[in-house]
Write a sequence for this structure.
């Protein structure tokens, strides 16, 4: 896996060679990757904000009431806030690490798999030989993030899924956001209608159910692959991070939306909450049918952004040498069609959306949001030091431990659910 395509090195300036430690300390002054980036159709800050909202707000928010059913209102709210803080901090750490990889390699951009490989190659001698494998594994996890639609929807999606520039997806993302929030507003009508006594709802559930909350909430609150792609396509990527940066503003809005939706859905339906809140609203009313159509259309229009991540991984990391060939575009279109077909097969073969959501949330969060940022930071700082009292080392180890525990327990619970559901399906047949 090459670290950069030939086109990325055109603007590289020849400067005195430094050691890794010297490069880390002085790379900000030697090479600024933001100044070297050339994006054909860059995103404005507003475009990036809209795209970030679309990255996260979709099918996941409809499952938040189910998450609160497993945690309780008070525990669910506290854990949502803590989880979002943890995930956002990890994204900051990840992007900072990727930027440092750009400085050390003197290239305008690197993908997440490339950053993983670079970090391994500059880390301790015992891990350097695993760089390529680690980068390839990261690519596979990024590809694992999919939306699950029926085969007919995949066929209808073909025209808009062929759009190859993220900038041109912004109008679709904006329309999708508007449709989804219209749908959510109407769902609120049903949620506020006939609210029961709040004392009948649990503030805290049994701790053994909390892991299910984490799995669903993780799926609902983060989309690390899409978040990285948005930053990579911004006209002003330096505005992405920071306390009042585009990422934090979008995350705050997403947290409010998901928390409010989860609380209201659980308050209204309690233990009767389904995997998607749309399954709880009446089925024989015109308004409820309108809601389902609007939300389905909103999610439909959001699909190209989700698939954009996979296409970026495949054609930026593993097909960069063919980008100027005549068959490059044809190959990309074929891969896009195959990807749509694959998601259709997943929809047909795995009907249990709740268990699948928990599995994907636990697996993706533990690897992409916790382990990858921590390992990249751990290895990049290996030759330069971990700060006073080695606080960076301690931070990275804590993130790694949390990621391993959460991934092991969360995936185990979700897989058990899928196996039980499969056995039940066989019995029914």
């Amino acid at each position: 896996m090459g670290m950069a395509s030939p086109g990325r090195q055109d603007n590289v300036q020849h400067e005195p060679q430094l050691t890794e430690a010297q490069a880390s300390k002085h790379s900000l002054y030697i090479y600024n990757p933001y100044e070297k980036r050339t994006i054909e159709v860059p995103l404005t800050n507003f475009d990036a904000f809209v795209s970030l909202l679309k990255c996260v707000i979709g099918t996941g928010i409809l499952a938040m009431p189910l998450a609160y059913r497993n945690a309780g209102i008070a525990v669910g709210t506290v854990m949502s806030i803590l989880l979002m803080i943890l995930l956002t901090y990890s994204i900051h750490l990840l992007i900072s690490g990727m930027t440092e990889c750009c400085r050390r390699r003197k290239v305008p951009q690197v993908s997440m798999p490339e950053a993983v490989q670079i970090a391994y190659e500059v880390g301790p001698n015992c891990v350097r030989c695993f760089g390529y494998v680690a980068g390839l594994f990261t690519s596979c996890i990024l590809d694992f993030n999919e939306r699950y639609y029926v085969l007919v929807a995949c066929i209808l999606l073909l025209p808009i899924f062929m759009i190859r520039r993220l900038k041109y997806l912004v109008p679709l993302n904006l329309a999708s956001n508007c449709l989804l929030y219209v749908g959510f507003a109407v769902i609120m009508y049903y949620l506020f209608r006939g609210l029961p006594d709040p004392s009948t709802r649990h503030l805290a559930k049994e701790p053994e159910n909390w892991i299910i909350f984490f799995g669903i909430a993780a799926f609902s609150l983060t989309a690390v692959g899409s978040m990285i792609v948005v930053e990579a396509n911004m006209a002003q990527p330096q505005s992405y991070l920071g306390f009042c940066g585009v990422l934090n503003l979008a995350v705050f809005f997403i947290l409010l939306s998901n928390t409010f939706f989860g609380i209201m859905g659980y308050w209204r339906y309690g233990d009767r909450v389904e995997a998607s809140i749309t399954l709880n609203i009446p089925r024989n009313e015109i308004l409820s049918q309108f809601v389902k159509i609007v939300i389905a259309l909103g999610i439909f229009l959001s699909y190209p952004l989700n698939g954009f991540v996979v296409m970026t991984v495949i054609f930026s990391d593993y097909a960069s040498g063919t980008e100027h060939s005549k068959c490059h575009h044809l190959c990309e279109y074929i891969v896009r069609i195959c990807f749509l077909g694959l998601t259709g097969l997943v929809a047909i073969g795995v009907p249990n959306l709740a268990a699948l959501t928990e599995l994907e949330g636990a697996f993706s969060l533990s690897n992409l949001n916790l382990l990858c940022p921590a390992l990249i930071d751990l290895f990049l700082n290996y030759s330069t030091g971990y700060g006073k009292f080695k606080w960076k080392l301690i931070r990275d180890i804590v993130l790694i431990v949390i990621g391993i525990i959460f991934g092991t327990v969360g995936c185990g619970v979700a897989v058990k659910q899928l196996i039980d559901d499969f056995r039940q399906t066989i019995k029914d047949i």
